[in-house]
């Protein structure tokens, strides 16, 4: 039996446009791709971080144009697009569990901020998503989630 250890491949995407030949493009991994845990939400009117440590983890996983994660109470999912450092997140669907009011309020702010994403930056400290909604603008700051061992 032959196997590969530690090898990765880049999927190839076929693209066909009317009246043009078929071309193959290697899908480029976006810097935003991966699993992230929200560290803080900063709003322009309240620059103090808003996520209390006792609230369940707020997460975002970006993979292949799809975003999934946890808002602290409910799971969510949707589509996203990047172009250079611009970020657009579509309407997010979520499960509909009810939790404590503080958790639900934080989840609502988090999901609304994600849907207002304008641009992002990935640095050594993590991911920052700059957002703007009708009511507010601010920054979501994330740290990378590490893969935990299987044993």
Features of this protein?
single chain; 151 residues; mainly beta; Lipocalin; nine-stranded antiparallel beta sheet; two-stranded antiparallel sheet; 11 strands
How would you characterize the overall build of this protein?
The chain has 151 residues and is mainly β. The chain contains one helix and eleven strands. It has a single domain (30-144), classed as Lipocalin (Beta Barrel). It has one helix at residues 101-115, and strands at 12-15, 23-26, 34-43, 59-63, 66-70, 75-83, 86-89, 93-94, 117-123, 126-132, 137-144. The strands form two sheets. Strands 3, 4, 5, 6, 7, 8, 9, 10 and 11 form a nine-stranded antiparallel beta sheet that branches. Strands 1-2 form a two-stranded antiparallel sheet. Strand 4 (59-63) and strand 5 (66-70) form a beta hairpin. Mean pLDDT is 79; it is low at 1-29.
Which sheet architecture does the biggest sheet show?
A: 9 strands, antiparallel
CATH topology: Lipocalin
Global geometry: globular
CATH top level class name: Mainly Beta
Number of strands: 11
- Quickly give the structural class: mainly beta
What is the radius of gyration? Answer: 18 Å
Number of domains as seen in the coordinates: 1
What CATH architecture would you give? Beta Barrel
N-to-C series of helices and strands: EEEEEEEEHEEE
| Total number of helices | 1
User: pLDDT under 50 segments (min length 5)?
Assistant: 1-29
| Beta strand % | 35-45%
| Estimated helix fraction | under 10%
N- to C-terminal distance: 25 Å
**Overall residue-averaged pLDDT value:** 79
């Amino acid at each position: 039996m032959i196997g590969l250890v530690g090898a990765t491949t880049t999927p190839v995407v076929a693209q066909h446009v009317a009246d043009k030949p078929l071309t193959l493009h290697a899908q480029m991994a976006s810097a935003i791709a991966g699993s992230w845990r929200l560290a803080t939400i900063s709003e322009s009117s309240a620059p103090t971080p808003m996520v209390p440590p006792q609230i369940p983890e707020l997460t975002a996983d970006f993979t292949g144009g799809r975003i999934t994660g946890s808002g602290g109470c409910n799971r969510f999912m949707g589509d996203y697009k990047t172009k250079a450092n611009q970020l657009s997140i579509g309407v997010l669907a979520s499960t509909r569990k009810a939790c404590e009011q503080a958790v639900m309020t934080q989840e609502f702010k988090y999901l609304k901020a994600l849907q207002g994403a304008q641009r992002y930056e990935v640095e050594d400290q993590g991911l920052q998503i700059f957002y703007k909604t009708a009511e507010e603008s601010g920054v979501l700051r994330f740290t990378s989630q590490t893969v935990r061992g299987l044993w």
